[in-house]
Specification:
Layout (H helix, E strand, L loop, with lengths): L1 H17 L14 H13 L5 E3 L2 E3 L6 E4 L5 E7 L4 E8 H15 L2 H4 L7 E5 L6 E7 L3 E2 H7 L2 H22 L6 E2 L8 E3 L5 E3 L6 E2 L6 E4 L25 E4 H16 L12 H6 L12 H10 L10 H4 L8 H12 L2 H4 L6 H7 L11 H7 L1 E2 L4 E2 L6 H14 L9 H6 L2 H8 L3 H10 L15
Antiparallel strand pairs: 1-2, 2-4, 3-4, 4-5, 5-7, 6-7, 8-10, 9-12, 10-11, 13-14, 15-16
Length: about 450
């Protein structure tokens, strides 16, 4: 009797959860909160209007609409039996069968399922409706386009490093060997923010999975105007390949650079305004970069927007740029470079040494004379070093101070406390030195050195 009663109770409980009166809801979304309340109320009043797919309830009504895409695609809020909020992407069957199947295939790839910066896929229903396909995804709060539109330029400047970093992390996951995935339609409306502030890459309907060892996919032009890389914007050879264009992992990188510029300028394009935009892109002329005042950011975007794909960084390399690295990492890089044998010996035969010292600006003029004298003195050995005006000497000083700063004997003079933390002192004194060093090292084989690799690759 007890067992029968338990079974009856469980059956009634399941019925309650599955009925319109018993909607379970793990409340998370802020932006779509009201729509989810309305969805539950509507389900109680009009249960026959609610559609259920793979345990997710939704209604394709304007009241529950949250976004749209190309070819009649619409997105609605949904609520799973487990109580978790979902997005239901409705696609017209006539136009989108191939796109939906491709998106399902791509979103099930290990590169994506293990990523924290790609939207999570749950289910594709291609059987329940003769006119529509339904793709179930995690519900997000807004697109990057919406975020940029509603944010001030100051807020965008503050948030840009975090957003750009997360976009690049998503691309690094997509591009991971042995079977890299090309997004091919990266743009602000395909980058989503979830309720926890994570930025996620989305919309993989035209993405392609490269075979092992392949670096390029050729096809008819896909994607969206103004959001294509240069090699994806014009045919390779009109007469021999049917007007096909190229897509590479580095194509996604150039478009990510366009997206990054869009963020930091609140909606501008690095290749200018139409009708000149395409011409500027094809000629490698990012005219918009001149409006950037932040030289560190400008260096990163110049690199990502390089005309030749070979000159662009990979996503992993771009993530190592000083603009996206914490101060600790930047300072460690300066110290490690300052400890290289060519820097120690002022090797004039070294191309790197010559590049560093081609900048004739005298760094010693930026340091108070009494501070420089103190920094140049080794109190333990009673020896004073003479640091010259070359930037290699500057790097050597930074390395030496960092290595021996806390070895200085007590009592310590006031000037010791004036300098304080060497990392903070030198990065404030020479704010552009990390990017100067990074730009020089990333273009030569020093970046492969064991002690430097972690800062560049």
């Amino acid at each position: 009797m007890i067992s029968l009663s338990n079974q009856l109770y469980q059956s009634l409980f399941v019925y309650y959860l599955e009925s319109s009166e018993g909607w379970k809801w793990e409340e998370n979304s802020i932006v779509h909160h009201e729509k989810l309340i309305k969805l539950q109320e509507y389900g109680k009043s009009y249960p026959k209007e609610i559609k259920q797919i793979n345990g997710v309830r939704f209604c394709c009504s304007q009241a529950f609409f949250v976004g749209k895409g190309n070819d009649g695609t619409r997105v609605y809020v949904g609520l799973g039996k487990d109580g978790y909020e979902r997005a239901v992407k409705r696609l017209p069957r006539d136009f989108c069968v191939c796109f939906a199947e491709q998106e399902k295939k791509v979103l099930n790839e290990t590169n994506i399922t293990q990523s924290n910066n790609v939207v999570r896929y749950w289910f594709l229903d291609d059987e329940s409706d003769k006119d529509w396909l339904f793709l179930i995804l995690d519900l997000c709060e807004e697109t990057l386009k919406e975020f940029v539109d509603r944010s001030s330029l100051d807020d965008l400047t503050t948030n840009a490093p975090d957003i750009i970093q997360q976009v690049l992390k998503g691309l690094a996951d997509l591009h991971r060997e042995p079977n890299p995935i090309l997004h091919r339609d990266l743009k602000p409306s395909n980058i989503l923010r979830d309720v926890h502030g994570n930025w996620l890459l989305a919309d993989f309907g035209i993405s392609r999975i490269l075979t092992a060892g392949s670096s390029t996919h050729q096809s008819e032009q896909r994607g969206t105007d103004d959001w294509r890389a240069v090699e994806s914007s014009h045919p390779l050879n009109d007469t021999t390949d049917g007007g096909k264009v190229c897509y590479k992992t580095k194509s996604d990188i150039q478009v990510a650079g366009i997206v990054a510029f869009y963020i930091v300028t609140k909606g501008e394009h690095p290749f200018g305004k139409n009708p000149d935009r395409l011409r500027n892109l094809l000629h490698g002329n990012p005219v918009g970069l001149s409006m950037l005042k932040d030289s560190v950011l400008k260096d990163l975007l110049s690199w990502m927007l390089s005309h030749d794909p070979k000159d662009r960084p990979s996503a992993k390399e771009a993530l190592k740029h000083p603009y996206l690295q914490p101060a600790k990492q930047q300072f460690e890089m300066l110290c490690k470079v300052g400890n290289q044998p060519e820097i120690k010996t002022h090797d004039i035969k070294s191309d790197v040494v010559r590049k560093f010292n081609s900048d004739r600006k005298n760094w010693t003029f930026l340091v108070r004379p009494d501070v420089l004298k103190y920094l140049s003195t080794d109190p333990l050995k009673g020896k004073t070093f003479h640091y010259k005006s070359s930037w290699t000497d500057c790097l050597r000083l930074i390395r030496n101070i960092n290595e021996h700063w806390h070895d200085r004997p007590r009592p310590r003079p006031k000037i010791f406390y004036l300098v304080g933390d060497p990392q903070e002192f030198f990065l404030n004194l020479f704010p552009n030195l990390p990017v100067k060093v990074h730009k020089t090292i990333r273009s030569c084989d020093w970046k492969e050195r064991v002690e430097l690799k972690e800062y560049f690759i």
